[in-house]
Design goal:
Elements lengths: L22 E9 L6 H6 L4 E4 L12 E4 L3 H9 L4 E9 L4 E7 L6 H6 L4 E8 L2 E8 L2 H13 L5 E8 L11 H13 L10 H8 L3 H20 L11
Antiparallel strand pairs: 1-7, 1-8, 2-3, 2-6, 3-5, 4-5, 6-7
Helix pairs in contact: 5-7, 6-7
Length: 241
Amino acid sequence: MTDDSNADHDGTDTRSIDAGSDCLIAEVRVPAESFVLGSTLVELSGVAVEFEFIVPTEGAPMPFLWVDTDSTAFATAAADDPTVENARCITRFDDSALYRIEWAEPDYGFLGWFRDGHATLLEADGVEDEWHLKLRVESREELGTFQTYCEEQDVRFELLRLYGLRKPKMGQFNVSEKQFEALTTAQEMGYFEIPRDASLDELAAELGVSPRAASERLRRGQTNLIHNSLMIGRATALGLD
């Protein structure tokens, strides 16, 4: 007899969840029509749409997305989509295009639910008749509110994966305290944005060090992060300052 004591009632494996987890990551699947661009995804069969979460936004929820199809075809379909007020192509490549979308209803479907802070949407990929969403929630109870919302809206909701996630510790990537401070402060000040919201001199002043010292801390911290996260098996530590 198979022991499924580590699985949820729907068969989802939850063995990676433990008491030390700081939050949970849930990967779910919902019908295309329950989220934005439902009719567009159905019309452009096989076309993949992916939200861009790196670009900082103010006000409107999730306005940027990538489309892996001819930009004209997407623009035509989006123009007839009831969830879209306006779609403008920002940049295009041979096989994809980045769009800025103005939603007809900023609180439509899950847009409003996420904007109200019930959970953090990490990824959203749409293709054909469904959306795959990756959510970060603080507890099973918070995930339960998502399921309740789906039930109230008569939305079919399928949990694909559920696993715990610990908040990263500095030592996990061999990043020193000073490197950690430099990296996080630079991120908060917009130093890594294009164009930059803060100069190296401004960052150095905030850290209370010289521009050269600030630059070195960033370089060493970034090197340690890359070697000890992206290049698994080649762990190294560069400097303590």
